[in-house]
Each structure stands twice: as C-alpha cells, then as structure tokens.
Amino acid sequence: DGGITQSPKYLFRKEGQNVTLSCEQNLNHDAMYWYRQDPGQGLRLIYYSQIVNDFQKGDIAEGYSVSREKKESFPLTVTSAQKNPTAFYLCASSTDRDGNQPQHFGDGTRLSIL
Amino acid sequence: GNSVTQMEGPVTLSEEAFLTINCTYTATGYPSLFWYVQYPGEGLQLLLKATKADDKGSNKGFEATYRKETTSFHLEKGSVQVSDSAVYFCALSDITGRRALTFGSGTRLQVQP
Among residues A47, A52, A77, B11, which is most buried (max CB within 10 A)? Predict the structure, then answer.
C-alpha cells in the first residue's frame, strides 16, 4: 500500500542539539509539506517543496531546515535555534496539480525536550 | 491572507445525536475546502472535500456543502457513533500560491454511549 512514513514516532532533544525527522512517501507525489501542531491549535506550515531540489519557507520556518534531494524524501531538521521545539510534527504530500488535491499525512513524530 | 474559523470544542454528544461543526473561511479566489479527522496519536485523514461553490462532499455519513455566499463549510452527520470521537479540522487550499493548506484550530468531538 502506498503511503507516508514518518520516523521516529517519538524523539527527544537535548539542549543545543540538532535532530532530524524523517519523512518518506511512495505515492509518487511531487509536493511535500511539514506542519507543526501544538495542543489546541491547528497545523502551521513550516516548509514545503513542490519539486525535487526546491523548497520554500512556510509561516514558521525559523529554527528549522529541510532538504529535497529525492522525490520520495523530505527530512526536517530541528536546529538548536528553535527554542520551543516541543510539538507534534506532521509530514504531508500531494499531487499538487491544481491546488484542488487533498494532502495525505503521515502518523507524525512527537518531539520533546529532555 | 487566508484563514479558517471553527467552533470551539469540545462538543459532547450522545450516541445517535445530530452533529454540526461550524466552519467559516476567508480566502482570495475560490479555494478547495476540506474536512480532516485526527484520532489520538495519529496523523490527519481526509474525511471529505469540495472544490467549487454548491458542491457537497460526503463520506461515512458525514456531509458538508461549500457555501460561497456565507463563506462556510459546516460539517454534519445525522447520527453519530462512539467511534466518531476525534478531532475534526476544517481546511482550505491556497490555489493561487503555495498550494499548502490553511487549517482551523480543530474541534474535539466526544460521543458518549
């Protein structure tokens, strides 16, 4: 079955440490997205990529970085510059042909500070 | 910019009750509208969508109609079940720019037996 795989499911970060969240899809989708979810809030866009080797900042990109070297992979690095990283992180993908297509989501990674 | 406003939860209903979760939006142009559902500890699943005015999306007994005149996309179900307990998100797509979704803050539904 096609889908999006996020790993790990739980991740702990120490002070001053960078951590990387994995996102892999086998849906052959061009576009991929990273969202952050805080309790009681909706999802906020961190970064997005509509094609390989290209990505754009979303609404809350500070303290995060991404790469898109392969169509199926879109890893997110939470850097030490992100002072409040504790949240639920969701990766999504879509065909993005005309903006009318839904996004498919992974099961998320929960990041906490040690 | 684009925005989505949902009714605050939690919404607590008895099994077989009628459900309405209100959603209104502000957007440039004519975005597509979506309802997603999130079960505890999981990602979001698409529940239904509508791509133009007066379209009705439906799935698993849930329905929502794209109302351009009232900029609304309210979610309804005639008879809820305990298994419908989850958080529901209304979202719209930005068809003119980055093609990402703008989400409402979510509404938690609790259905009691």
Answer: A47
* Helical ranges in chain A per DSSP H: none
Kindly state the tokens that stand for A60: 């809350």
Q: Which two tokens stand for residue A92?
A: 């999504």
CB contact under 8 A, B105 and A105: no
| Closest CA relative to residue A3, chosen from B43, B82, B54, B20 | B43
Compute φ and ψ for A86, nearest 5 degrees: -65, 115
pLDDT tens digits, A62-93: 999 999 999 999 999 999 888 899 999 999 99
How close A94 comes to chain B (CA, Å)?
Answer: 9
Phi and psi angles of residue A83, each rounded to the nearest 5 degrees, phi first? -80, -15
The pLDDT > 90 percentage for chain A reads: 76
Which of A15, A9, A33, A1 is closest to A84 using CA atoms?
A15
Q: How far is B85 from chain A (nearest CA, A)?
A: 16
Closest-approach residue (CA) in chain B for A37: B105
**Other C-beta atoms within 10 Å of B24: how many?**
17
The candidate with the shortest Cα–Cα distance to A20, out of A32, A35, A8, A31, is: A8
